[in-house]
Amino acid sequence: xxxxxxxxxxxxxxxxxxxxxxxxxxxxxxxxxxxxxxxxxxxxxxxxxxxxxxxxxxxxxxxxxxxxxxxxxxxxxxxxxxxxxxxxxxxxxxxxxxxxxxxxxxxxxxxxxxxxxxxxxxxxxxxxxxxxxxxxxxxxxxxxxxxxxxxxxxxxxxxxxxxxxxxxxxxxxxxxxxxxxxxxxxxxxxxxxxxxxxxxxxxxxxxxxxxxxxxxx
Length: 217
What we know:
Layout (H helix, E strand, L loop, with lengths): L2 H15 L4 H12 L9 H13 L4 E5 L5 H8 L6 E6 L2 H13 L6 E5 L2 H4 L7 E6 L6 H11 E10 L14 H15 L3 E10 L2 E10 L2
Helix pairs in contact: 2-5, 3-4, 7-8
């Protein structure tokens, strides 16, 4: 098996289970045209986030790492009409592309973008949230997780993306992203207020994975 096979299987799964969506397709096209890194979640991963939001009955969602707004659109669509998604983005250029994509999706009233370093924005974010999605700079994952826990309600869910790093997370001497993710796992494992697991994935985005954390209290 190789990357071509992983991508082909993802393409089949998306074609089989996910309706074509011009708004989401255009969001990716605009991101590409603007020169943004194409590191958004895949369509099947976006739908997974939406399903998770529905399963926890999310009314408020926090996202750390907006990029072009692709995952925010997926999750916000799962919210009730009076629901809210707050998303934090460091790069003003990314945030501007996201605003256009979100407005086109008819979700401007439901999604609030805050621009700036997430660790500077988070102290000013008001919780609690039902779902937190962390998909930003990986060396900061330990801090992002601790803020996510602080801002989550009991019974809420925290999802952390890109935790396998092409296998790099298994190397204690790996790069800064792998080390940050390992430190986050250590914090999660020692935290009595949560229960968690992590799953490897392969697909159009390569070899990676995600961590699911359920907040107990």
